[in-house]
Amino acid sequence: MNSKDIILITGGSAGMGKATAIELAKTFATVVILCRSKEKGEKALIDIKRESKSDNVNLFICDLGNMDSIRKFTEAFKEKYKKLNVLINNAGVILPSRHETSDGFELQFGVNHLGPFLLTNLLLETISNSSPGRIINVASGAHKVGNIHFKDVNLKNNYNLIKAYSQSKLANILFTYELSKRLQGTKVTVNCLHPGAVATEMGVNRKTGFGSAISKMLKPFFLTPLQGASTAIYLATSEEVQTVTGKYFYKKKPIKSSKLSYEKELSKNLWNLSEQLTGL
Question: Which listed residue (81, 165, 177, 234) is catalytic?
Answer without folding.
Answer: 165
